[in-house]
Amino acid sequence: MSTELTVSNIVLVAKQHEIEELRHLEARAQLVGDIGALIHCLQNERGASSLFLASAGARFGDTRQALIAASREREGALRTSFDTLLQHSNHGSAKLYSLMAWVLLGLDALPALRAQVDAQQLGPDEAVAAFSRLISGLASLIFEVADTTVNPGISRSLVALFNFVQGKELAGQERAVGAAMFASGQCDAPHQQRILDLIDAQERNFQVFCEFADETSLAPWQEMHVAPYVVILERLRRVLGSAKPGAALDANQSDKWFECCSDRLAAMWSLQCLQVERLQAQCAHLIAEAERELTDSEGLLTQLRNSPPPSAGLGERFFDPNIPIDHALRFTPTEGGAPPVERSIIEVLQAQSERIANMETELDSARRALNERKVIERAKGVLMARFNLTEEAAYKMLQKTSMDQNRRLAEVAEAVLALPAFFTPQPATPRR
Amino acid sequence: MSTELTVSNIVLVAKQHEIEELRHLEARAQLVGDIGALIHCLQNERGASSLFLASAGARFGDTRQALIAASREREGALRTSFDTLLQHSNHGSAKLYSLMAWVLLGLDALPALRAQVDAQQLGPDEAVAAFSRLISGLASLIFEVADTTVNPGISRSLVALFNFVQGKELAGQERAVGAAMFASGQCDAPHQQRILDLIDAQERNFQVFCEFADETSLAPWQEMHVAPYVVILERLRRVLGSAKPGAALDANQSDKWFECCSDRLAAMWSLQCLQVERLQAQCAHLIAEAERELTDSEGLLTQLRNSPPPSAGLGERFFDPNIPIDHALRFTPTEGGAPPVERSIIEVLQAQSERIANMETELDSARRALNERKVIERAKGVLMARFNLTEEAAYKMLQKTSMDQNRRLAEVAEAVLALPAFFTPQPATPRR
């Protein structure tokens, strides 16, 4: 059906377009929920796999099988979400699809990885690294959804959620590394440093989370800081952090470590679910609001259909220099003078323009947080390629420069990207 | 038709999605061309209307009628483009529709404006201001298209074009204001200052144009600086700029002023057409390239259909810690080892990820130029509302602070936006 080109029809189409975009956003919130749930299951499976391998298959075999079944169920749900996105190819960005393909490569590879764990062909560290790689790909998907969201409220919630999931992932890695250390019965320097790095990196993520989360999420987060398992965790962290390399560790503490880490992760998981629920409620609320506005606008504009075209009267008003217009096209109708029909169309358009302008401004702050991360990640990539560094070493190089020069980390990263002559990535050489 | 969820299908869908987005971009390039052409015609009509009114209807009556006919033709073309966008509501952003509605309000109001000019119910300044308002709305549409373009090459071209159109618009205003000054036979201080401001603002736009334009556009731009009409223009600019307020101006110079400004605008118009042609060629080239890549990928991936699922083999490669992966998911397949089918899918995905990552980086520089303008426009809006200033006065306030504090204009604008307590817009009060 063809729609006549009139101002009021464009206003209505813009509103319908907005509702459709919000519906896509609702589907994305579902996707983000599915991703978060699979990450949680894979974290559990990673922990159990690490303990299973560290104990040479003696322990955690049954737990691991139960956790694999849980992972599989969540994987199925995520594949359904992926499938929906694949069938509606206009809903995603090129980058989203590229990340999806990469994640699917990993999901397809999971059975082979599990078979290697079954046969104990991997060390605990290798298994942890493999699961972590897949989880990191899954987290990138959440980041991409946050990055392409145009609604400021949802964008803020997604920035908070992404950083929370990243922080939780690092907490999961901490559990796996620490459990392997205790189970091995001996402290070694690389694992010890890794634990300290993981604690540090968690702090950074949770800081951004606190900046962007709303009250509903912040209250349970504060409560988590006084929970009993935190006391145990901090004591065991101290044991791991202060032991001399080579010193013996009490292998029986492995369970206690695993348990308090798991309690903390379970609390995080509850909070993650709460955030996803809130996100979905936010989307539903926005859709209901936009639909109500559409109905209101339709009501206001219906009378136009039975009135003469508004051109003549509106003309004088459009070009009236006494009605100020700024770049955002907010113009203030003067009091009295105009008949109600004209006023209504100008008011609807004005309200719409005003809302769009406000949303743009609000969106900027959420975008800034995401952009800083992108710049830092890109600068890390340049340094990794240029100096053949690990990700952690590249990060430390940025961090050290930031502290030495008393400049923000993002500024240092910008500077690295602005000096391509010094840092152009070399042709990649296999590290074998 | 349902597509099976496999890595290779996602890779192909991502490619198809990219081609579809490029097609939308091609339609946008058409829209931008139509907008630019209408702006050009309205500029001509504005110049003739101003002279017609300044001469109390004695001159430029016929020229004006011919120019109105030309404007109408271009308006028809633009309405067709708008109509296409309205029928395919998924192609635009909420903001694009809001701007379209506003512009349509102005187009609907044009006949009433022309009737007022016919009846000489307006002064030349009022007529210039009315046309300028509509042209500024049209230019905002070009800005919005540039702002929502995700291809870095096209985005750069659109940033260059937008700034060129803005610069040309200011040159058109200069022609109209100067012609009215000469025709009135007397110099007055406000118009004199306006001419100087317009010359200044043109410089700023053409600077950004030069930064983002490619060689094809820069060469004719350089040639324009040594054209004969520029010598005449500069002499007449000097006459207008140095005359004492109240001093007599030679009304016969009005034609010469109009002529040399028109020659300059005609040259700009040619260059604008060249830019639009280049833009369309760029889009066509990108589509052809993406389609070739799609065919190549399909060729490479076809063999997968007849091969066993790649899960097992790829699995080891996905989790192989010796294949480094950075945040952009660029991973380097090791030499030898993998069968050709596996290598091809990894290579296709890798090439796609790499291209997306590079495009993101390139896009940033174009976005930065657009964002700076947005921040400055927003800060102007805040100052206008807060201190009840005109746009020009708000700009000067920013500029003065920038010079006094030796900080970039965009930084000052950021600071204005960061201090909401000082600058919160007051509820708008009608200025009548």
Portion of residues within helices of chain A: over 70%
Q: Which percent range describes the beta-strand content of chain A?
A: under 5%
Low-confidence stretches of chain A: 308-312, 326-339, 424-432
- Estimate the global geometry of chain A from the Cα principal axes: elongated
Number of strands of chain A: 0
How many discrete domains of chain A? 2
Pairing-aware structural class of the strands and helices of chain A? mainly alpha
Average pLDDT for all residues of chain A: 83
H-E string of chain A: HHHHHHHHHHHHHH
* Rounded Rg of chain A: 27 Å
**Biggest sheet features of chain A:** none
Biggest contact: A-B, 91 and 89 residues
Distance between the termini of chain A: 62 Å
Give the helix tally of chain A: 14
